[in-house]
Amino acid sequence: MTAAEMIDRKHQEDLQRIKGFRLMDDDFLTKCFEGDTACIQLVLRIILDMPDLQVIDVRTQVFVENLLNRSVRLDVLATDSIGRKINVEIQRSDKGAGKKRARYNSSMMDANLLRKGTDFKELPETFVIFITEHDVLGRGRPLYHIGRYIFDTNESFDDGSHILYVNGAYRDATPLGKLMHDFSCTNPNDMYYDVLAERVRFFKESKEGVSIMCKVIEDMRKEEREAGIREGMKQGMMTTARRMLETGKYALEEIADISGLSFDELKTIQNN
To answer: How far apart are alpha carbons 40 and 251 in whole angstroms?
Structure first.
């Protein structure tokens, strides 16, 4: 096969992959919602049951970092007309939608919303919304709205922090049921909501949109290659650390310094 034939084959494979994308795929959704307030506004109005909500800003793939340099990437971060901050996450894997992940996202948003010297009363209301392919919480409900409350009096604590899980498998004739149907569609002609269908159609059928998605796929390939290299390097370091441990000549501090592994990782190797 010639180089030109290989390039054409890869391009045809990319086109087929684009046809299979859904809004339930986070890389596709973030590209569809990038800078598009109409799409995220529709989604939030339905999920939050706020028909008058007005989105004034939306950003995708937002990196937020804490003081310990532990970052999190938010799929979508929207701001509405009264200053509420809303993070939307797409999770096909149940593992990625854990309760502590939701708590972490919420805390990271809070930690980055107030400038030095600003009164805590200025902290805006926040929402972390996980749209999951399956019913992660397993109660058979279309939507789970989670907030803090006072155990002793069974009253809402009302601190302005909200976590919601949306069951992506839910289907019925309600706006939410139709929305989850649309999130699973590969064909825009099968979607209920025109504003979503038009955006999906742009990235699947127009020359410009398809070109953008081909670039996204290429970036995904690059990330996968780099992740594979990092994993290979880590496996190599773990092998080196295991051999150093077996000699009994090196302290854990020395091995950690040479290998770059953490003490917890070294102890795991030591105990296996």
So the answer is: 54
Reported as a pLDDT band with limits 50, 70 and 90, residue 130 is: very high
**Burial letters for 35-46: b for 16+ Cβ neighbours within 10 Å, e otherwise?**
ebbebbbbbbbb
If one counts every other C-beta atom within 10 angstroms of the C-beta of residue 185, the result is 17
Contacts 24+ apart (CB under 8 A), 233-242: 237/261, 238/265, 238/269, 241/265, 241/266, 241/269, 242/269
Specify if 61 maps to a domain.
yes
Domain that holds residue 230: 222-271
What does the alpha-carbon distance between residue 142 and residue 135 come to, in Å, rounded to a whole number?
8
In this predicted structure, the answer to whether residue 267 has a pLDDT above a threshold of 90 is no
Do 229 and 254 lie in one domain? The reply is yes
**Residue type (1 letter), 103:** R
* SS3 at position 127: strand
How far is Cα 81 from Cα 43, in angstroms, rounded to an integer? Answer: 16
Its pTM stands at: 0.80
Check whether residue 144 and residue 256 sit in a common domain: no
Instruction: Give residue-wise pLDDT tens across range 163-191.
Output: 999 999 999 999 999 999 999 999 999 99
Percentage helix, strand, coil, to 5, in the chain?
50, 20, 30
Q: Are 72 and 104 in contact (CB under 8 A)?
A: yes
